[in-house]
Amino acid sequence: MTAAAELHGPTRARAAEILARNDLGHYTVPTHGLYPFQWNWDSCLSALGLAHLDEDRAWTEIETLFAHQWDDGMVPHIVFHRPDEGYFPGPDVWQTGRPVPTSGITQPPVAGFAVRRLLERTRDAEAARRRAAALLPAIDRWHEWFHACRDPEGTGLVAIIHPWESGRDNSADWDAALSRVPTEGVAPFERRDTRHADAAHRPTEAQYLRYIWLVQHFRALGWDNRRLHDASPFRVVDPGFNAILLRATADLAWVADALGAPEIARRSRDRLAAGLDAMERLWSDEAGQYLCHDRVAGTLVPSRSVGGLLPAFAPISGMRADALARRIEELAGRCRYLVPSHDPAAEGFDGKRYWRGPVWLIVNYMLADGLAAKGKARLARRIVDDSLALIDAGGFAEYYDPMTGEPCGGKEFTWTAAMVLEFLDGRDGIPSGDEA
Length: 436
Ligand code: DGY
Prior knowledge:
Layout: H1 3-7, H2 9-21, E1 38-39, H3 40-50, H4 55-66, E2 78-79, H5 91-94, H6 111-121, H7 125-149, H8 163-166, H9 175-179, H10 193-196, H11 205-220, H12 225-231, E3 236-237, H13 239-259, H14 262-279, E4 283-284, E5 289-290, E6 292-294, E7 299-301, H15 318-332, H16 361-373, H17 377-394, E8 399-400, E9 407-408, H18 414-425
Helix pairs in contact: 2-18, 3-4, 3-6, 3-18, 4-7, 6-7, 6-13, 7-13, 13-14, 16-17
The structure holds (2R)-2,3-dihydroxypropanoic acid.
Residues 77, 164, 169, 193 line the site of (2R)-2,3-dihydroxypropanoic acid.
């Protein structure tokens, strides 16, 4: 145990307790009530926390997710392992026809990154190599699916076709694109999220109507991923999502090298090189960061959200990393806790409403990791310190108001607890939360 972990003993114990409480044996729920199933990127990031307690259990978390990979290669964003009336939209709305019901869209592909990290840190090299070797082709197939189905013109970058795919559901980044999604013909529904969390912290009714319209639209197309991209009125190239895919692609190449799979390594490096080149088209000098590209309108989206800072997590150039660090320093002058999911000075900022302003620990983790790897230890350290200060003041919430630190959304959150264990551990260049 590092000095940091000892110093924060009670915090560490509480994080472990939350992971145990949300552990249903072969998968974790993000939190009971609000999210009663398995979520894709929640699970992969939570596995990093589980590994501190039980490495075998950490691998199982990712394996369970991949057991529900579709035949076309997609890994769905939700696996509905067992019925629960407390969530909407459930399997009856998605109707994807899977043996164990799943949603029909995907989520940020952090699996390649998580598998590398588990493999690199393992205390049981033989078991880890065996389990990573079984996941390697499945992750490669998922990446292949992204390029085939979400980048049909071969631009090097993939689009999301539903705001839920980004993981940043109600970001201001989607406002213009989402406003073009119709609402006619949406079957009447009752939201359940607002039974579990404050409605003022959640997406609006108008956004939900459009989220559901898109689900119904894709359902009517039989969830045929060869058709969904072109048929969606919502197609946005998110720099944050692509940065995660690029980082996972680089990490998958590393895993492939380590396990002697040269074809996967080569394919991954080719995709990485093409993606990094294409990412330059999302850079805006005026914004001082990356911006989304609306593939339907053919324009960059002038919304300065954390999605445009997340490329710090990918192997971008030192010059771009310097600029992103400057931008985060600028945000530090506008809020008490880094890193807000939207610029507090921008229109549309709301410190409590989900992805329109709140701080998320998983985002802080990816940013701190990327910044530390690019020599920005001081800024990474500030992000880690702010993250742990939020935990000390408000517990293990889903997200936090960057101005006041108020805990928002769901409580006792799995991936928040996982990130705390990672911060306290302080390996891989992420400064740990000890000596101030
Ligand atoms: C929700 O239900 O709020 C989720 O973010 C969708 O995945």
